Amino acid sequence: MHVIALSEVTATMTALVGGKAAGLGELIRHGEQVPDGFCVTTEAHRLGVIPTAEVVAAYERLGAGPVAVRSSATAEDLPDASFAGQQDTVLDVTGTVELIAAIEKCWDSLHAYRATAYREARGIDHQTVRMAVVVQRMVAPAVAGVLFTANPLTGRRDEMAVDAAPGLGTTVVDGAAAVHHYVLDDVARADAGCLTSAQLARLRATGERLQAHFGCPQDVEWAIDADDVLWLLQSRPITSLFPAPP
């Protein structure tokens, strides 16, 4: 199988679709709002040939508009190795030529220095890792960011933390924009910044659902569009969390 719809992916398919796609498939099955998309599987990567006809057909089923092309390696989004930012994502890809080039870029990023150094530091055998690629309909966010269902700065499990900025969530992750930081305890309240109290309450409720479903604190990428729809772009275990304070 070389191309599979995200709606058909299950959490047990990491070897075929990689960690990110498996997580997205699980979010969809849990009833969360996830941008439509498909996955170019690790089997295609193993063969070293992009299945162009299948990719084009899947892209056209998405509407052939702008898409996000995202790496999804088999050693990714693990409880002790998130690989956050170690492999490539290409945003606002339009047209089949750009799409094929973006898939190739994601494949190549598996062997980038930052990714190989990350694997070596964690004792992961390079020869066992395969790359899948997720292609999703592009969300145009009014605001986006990251939700931590436990506070990563203090280790407190009874607090959630949100980092947010107007526009794309990549500005939060790479520090390219001023970030608004919120700590959510019993009350989700916005005194300032780019999020309303109602949006923070929805993020808190989402975090509670995801932590209960996955059974551990989660690091969640999200975006809210101009229609105030909350989209989930990723959910993975928090890999660096201090012990809970006494």
TrEMBL record:
Keywords: ATP-binding, Kinase, Magnesium, Metal-binding, Nucleotide-binding, Pyruvate, Transferase
PANTHER family in UniProt: PHOSPHOENOLPYRUVATE SYNTHASE
Listed name of the protein: Phosphoenolpyruvate synthase
Associated pathway: Carbohydrate biosynthesis; gluconeogenesis
General function of this protein: Catalyzes the phosphorylation of pyruvate to phosphoenolpyruvate.
Organism of origin: Micromonospora ureilytica
Documented EC number(s): 2.7.9.2
Domain of life of the source: Bacteria
Protein family according to the UniProt entry: Belongs to the PEP-utilizing enzyme family.
Transmembrane residue ranges: none
Catalytic activity: pyruvate + ATP + H2O = phosphoenolpyruvate + AMP + phosphate + 2 H(+)
GO molecular function, one term: pyruvate, water dikinase activity
Obligatory cofactor(s): Mg(2+)
Domain Pyruvate phosphate dikinase AMP/ATP-binding: 53-186, 189-240
